[in-house]
């Protein structure tokens, strides 16, 4: 008998992740534009206003294992959401770029606590035999959020007081999530708490990072670093190319392609391994970036969005499955945090560093370079994991 996946806990956790992702992308794709219009800063500084959120999230993920061990996962969840409400209120009072950067970093910290906790719950409650499928479906909640968030954000930027509406919606979403999680009653296994608490007596890097998850997480860092150039500069690139209207639909198209493919790819990963999914996805990602770099017409933006949706979207879930595959059950929270810490680091460093490249070379040259990086990642994946899985299937 097939183990049940769609439990009440799985549905509620996925819905909360959906709301948080809407708010993340709503602000991420508009924040650089907000910084330029409101504080008249450079492109690289505007990118930092977007990406410093992710660096704050990275710090939150680094510490979340300790917090969960000490206070329990639901307490960390609710505390993170309460912190998100308080920090989001501060957006209304940011009177300079320095204050905005501080608010963004603190906001990222609170969201890092929450999303790592919800991700850990998902992994804990998903049946082992359906792990790839479960992670793929859970990831779809983020995909839907990434489709709706940018669309709402770019719509609101055309309205008077649009950014104030964004900040208010962020507060509302956090409050709704707090209320929703009053209905969830899940704790991490006792083994998770004991392992972490025993190691809090002395500093060890293994308290914060699961070494088994590091290789694939480093590759995800590179891909996330590359894709951050799209999430942070979509609005500005759309304005420069005269394709701002179709750019508003980029993440919708991107997400629809992921939604249509992920249920299938998740089952394929469970049945036949990750390689059969990863190689085509990485090639599609590189192709999408190349088309995006050459975009001169709406159909090219649409094609690029579809390629990157199929590529980045499915590689993300496949890489997460690989990161968790060999993790000890007592370290699933740590493996989850490790994966997302590296992903956050890529998304956090990307917009600021790539913003300097944009100032020197322009958008099109940057996206050409990133397309080449995507191709280089294919043999890197083979070396760190692909060849191992190939040998494992050959010997079975």
From TrEMBL:
Query: Main subcellular localization, coarse class?
Result: membrane
Q: Where are the transmembrane segments?
A: 12-35, 41-64, 71-94, 100-123, 135-159, 165-184, 213-234, 246-264, 276-293, 299-319, 331-354, 366-385
Enumerate the UniProt keywords alphabetically. Membrane, Transmembrane, Transmembrane helix, Transport
Pfam families attached here? MFS_1 (PF07690)
Organism per entry = Ureibacillus endophyticus
One GO CC term on file: plasma membrane
Classify the protein's membrane topology as the record does.
Answer: Multi-pass membrane protein
The subcellular localization recorded is: Cell membrane
The name this protein goes by in its record: MFS transporter
Q: What CDD domains is this protein classified in? A: MFS_YfcJ_like
Q: Which GO terms describe its molecular function?
A: transmembrane transporter activity
């Amino acid at each position: 008998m097939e183990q049940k996946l769609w439990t009440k806990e799985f549905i509620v956790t996925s819905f909360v992740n959906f709301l948080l992702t809407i708010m993340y992308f709503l602000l991420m794709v508009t924040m650089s534009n907000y910084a330029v219009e409101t504080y008249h800063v450079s492109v690289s500084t505007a990118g930092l206003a977007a990406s410093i959120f992710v660096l704050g999230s990275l710090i939150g993920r680094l510490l979340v294992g300790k917090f969960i061990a000490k206070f329990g996962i639901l307490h960390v969840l609710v505390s993170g959401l309460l912190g998100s409400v308080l920090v989001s209120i501060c957006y209304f009072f940011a009177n300079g770029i320095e204050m905005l950067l501080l608010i963004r970093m603190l906001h990222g910290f609170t969201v890092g606590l929450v999303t790592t906790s919800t991700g850990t719950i998902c992994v804990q409650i998903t049946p082992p035999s359906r792990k790839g499928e479960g992670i793929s479906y859970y990831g779809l909640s983020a995909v839907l959020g990434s489709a709706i968030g940018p669309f709402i954000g770019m719509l609101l930027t055309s309205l008077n007081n649009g950014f104030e509406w964004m900040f208010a919606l962020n507060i509302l979403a956090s409050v709704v999530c707090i209320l929703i999680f009053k209905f969830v009653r899940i704790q991490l296994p006792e083994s998770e708490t004991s392992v972490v608490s025993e190691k809090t007596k002395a500093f060890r890097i293994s308290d914060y990072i699961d070494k088994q998850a590091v290789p694939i997480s480093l590759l995800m860092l590179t891909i996330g670093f590359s894709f951050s150039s799209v999430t942070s500069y979509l609005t500005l690139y759309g304005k420069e190319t005269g394709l701002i209207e179709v750019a508003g639909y980029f993440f919708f198209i991107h997400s629809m392609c992921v939604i249509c493919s992920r249920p299938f790819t998740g089952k394929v990963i469970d049945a036949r391994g990750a390689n059969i999914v990863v190689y085509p996805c990485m090639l599609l990602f590189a192709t999408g970036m190349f088309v995006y770099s050459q975009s001169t017409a709406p159909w090219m933006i649409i094609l690029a969005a579809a390629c990157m949706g199929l590529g980045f979207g499915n590689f993300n879930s496949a890489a997460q499955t690989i990161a968790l595959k060999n993790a000890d059950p007592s370290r699933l929270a740590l493996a989850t945090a490790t994966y997302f810490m590296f992903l956050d680091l890529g998304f956090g460093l990307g917009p600021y560093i790539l913003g300097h490249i944009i100032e020197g070379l322009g958008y099109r040259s940057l996206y050409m370079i990133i397309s080449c990086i995507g191709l280089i990642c294919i043999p890197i994946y083979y070396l760190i994991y692909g060849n191992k899985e190939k040998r494992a299937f050959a010997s079975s």
